[in-house]
Amino acid sequence: MYGFINTCLKSLVIEKYGEETWEKLRLQAGVQDSFLTFEVYKDEITMQLVDKACKILGIIGAAALDFFNIEISMEIVNQTEEEERTGKLLRGFDPVYPKSLWIDTKTFCNGLPFHMVFDKELRVKQAGVSIQKIVPGLQTMGICLDHYFSIVHPEVPFTISSIQKFINSQFVFQTRREMMPESWKQRPMLELRGQMIWMESLQCMLYLCSPLLRTLHELEERQMHIADIAPHDVTRDLILLNQQRLAEMELSNQLERKKEELRILSKHLEEEKKKTEALLYAMLPQHVANQLKEGKRVEAGEFKECTILFSDVVTFTNICAQCEPIQIVLMLNSMYLRFDRLTTVHDVYKVETIGDAYMVVGGVPVPVPTHAERVANFALGMIIAAKGVQNPVSGNPIQIRVGIHTGPVLAGVVGEKMPRYCLFGDTVNIASRMESHGVPSKIHLSSSAYQCLKYKNFEMSERGEIEVKGKGKMHTYFLIRNKTATENEIMGRPMKDLDSGRESVQSFQEGRAETTRSCHQSATQTQPEKDQTPAIAMKYIDGPVDAQNSLKRRNQAKIADLTGSYLVTI
After folding, report:
1. In angstroms, rounded to a whole number, what is the distance separating the alpha carbons of residues 3 and 6?
2. Which of 108, 141, 209, 479 has the fewest Cβ atoms within 10 angstroms?
3. What sections of the sequence does the record tag as coiled-coil (predicted)?
4. Which of 331, 197, 193, 305 is nearest to 548 (CA)?
């Protein structure tokens, strides 16, 4: 029987009588404590449990008390007394038997393919056709049944008297391996289950049985076929239904495996999606990228005030003429990796790179009041970072020019194939002119950029009026250093102790003695290790002031320069 039946009995006993009663019952029955629901167990386990439960629990009395709330006493009465109390159960039914059996021997043996008739000496008198095919020895009439079979259940001696004592029990026979043909000795032995019927007139025992099989696999192992089992035998239905159950379980397992595979694929897909989005967000602003993913058109936006930076490498044309292309690529990659890290530190947007030119903007695409401060600190970091990149021709650190201008721009996405987020307006041209008219290792500021930084703790020096191509004479300035920020803060490195970490950025500007070539090479080797540290974002105080108010303050500063006084507006 399936373990489900034993499990239900266990649950009933524990629920009604407690764990201790179940443990006592289990020990007396000599069975295990737990059963698998779909595992098939021997019938004797269930019979032992039921037998001990009746003795220990008094099931009938408990049922009467539980359902009818009455206490009963039981006594054994004979059949006569039972008839007097209840009358004849059959109510006068007398069966009619034919004078002779209207079935021939061949039909009987084919209709009941698994049956055997044997006498008191266990000599076989008759056997079904299927059992003869499996155990050829049964074709010899008069052989002893116990030579070919052993009794598995109940555990009694193989004698006619023992069988008669347990005639109401189900009997399970198993073939003896040593008596089977050679072809059968490598297969699992066949078990038969059925009932015994004693035929008094013939002094013989009839064993009506069927093979104890549950699956098609067990049938195949014994090289049997469904046709070997009688059509009326429920074993056929059991095998087919169990096969259907196994198929459903296999299908369920396959679905579980597929579900797990889909979960893993979904996880990998999510990881790849994140990588793709990270790459996309590196090329376009996040809100612009999201609009493009949704198939929406990105409208151009006007920004009242922002700060744009351009930089290029000094004597880049000469370097390209004297080096291999791969050396140029390695040099630019080393430099741009450092610059890209700084964009994270100061939260500025990298617009594009063209050759050795590097362009960033502050206040676009997300307007912030501190756009000029961010770009100024970014420029100071660029000067420091460039000292860690080696010129492949001279072996010395490369030099860069930086130009910064503040003003209004129009920004939008252009193109469908490889779309780019571009800036348009005269502000872009002036920023480019500041870079091209700059000085090596200097940060060149326009007048508007200077006004934005004038009261922001930056040290600046006046360059004076210069002739700017396409713009005429312009008054420009140089950015020297940040008066309050340390190099580590500007570079986004972990802060050092106060005793050693307050070195000003000024030490990296013009006026310091140049180091020897060996020192430059040492710096080149150690700088990448520093850049490998996580970028720590520099803190900026972005209040509720918008770009328009910032522009108003800048105009007030211009008036103050002319009148000698500074107006404060609250």
Report:
1. 5
2. 141
3. 241-279
4. 305
Strand pairing class (458-468; 472-482): antiparallel
Please write the tens of the pLDDT for every residue from 42-79: 888 888 888 777 777 766 666 666 666 777 665 545 54
Residue 184's pLDDT band (cuts 50, 70, 90):
confident
Residue pair 181/207 in contact (Cβ under 8 Å)? The answer is no
Rounded-to-integer distance, Cα 355 and Cα 439, Å: 19
Residues 6+ apart with CB under 8 A from 421: 284, 285, 288, 351, 365, 411, 412, 413
What torsion, rounded to 10 degrees, do the Cα atoms 317, 321, 325, 329 define?
-30
Helix %, strand %, coil % for the chain, to 5? 45, 20, 35
Alpha-carbon span 190 to 134, nearest angstrom: 9
**CB of 474 closer than 8 Å to CB of 447:** yes
User: What is the distance between the alpha carbons of residues 247 and 214, in angstroms, rounded to a whole number?
Assistant: 14
pLDDT given at position 300: 81
DSSP letter assigned to residue 405: E
Residue type, 315: T
- Which one, of 509, 524, 537, lies nearest residue 439 by Cα? 509
Q: What is the mean pLDDT of the chain?
A: 82
Task: Please state the rounded mean pLDDT for residues 150-165.
Answer: 91
Question: d(Cα 516, Cα 511) in Å, to the nearest integer?
Answer: 15
Q: How far apart are CA 134 and CA 250, in angstroms?
A: 31
380: helix, strand or coil: helix
Q: How much of the chain, in percent, has pLDDT values that exceed 90?
A: 42
Residue type, 368: V
CB 331 within 8 A of CB 390: yes
Q: Any bridge partners for residue 476, and if so which?
A: 464
Cis, peptide link before residue 392, omega less than 30° from 0: no
In 202-347, where do the E strands start and end? 204-211, 301-313
Q: What is the DSSP string of 145-163?
A: GGGTEEEEES---SSHHHH
Burial class (CB in 10 A: 0-12, 13-18, 19+), 429: middle
**Please, are residues 504 and 486 in contact by the beta-carbon 8 Å criterion?**
yes
Dump the DSSP string for 25-36: HHHHHT--S---
**Distance between CA atoms of residues 243 and 219, nearest Å:** 11
Helices (H) and strands (E) in the chain, counts: 20, 14
Give just the sign of the alpha carbon dihedral 507, 513, 514, 520: negative
Task: Using the Cα atoms of residue 123, residue 128, residue 133 and residue 139 in order, give the sign of their dihedral.
Answer: positive
Residue 312 confidence (pLDDT) above 90: yes
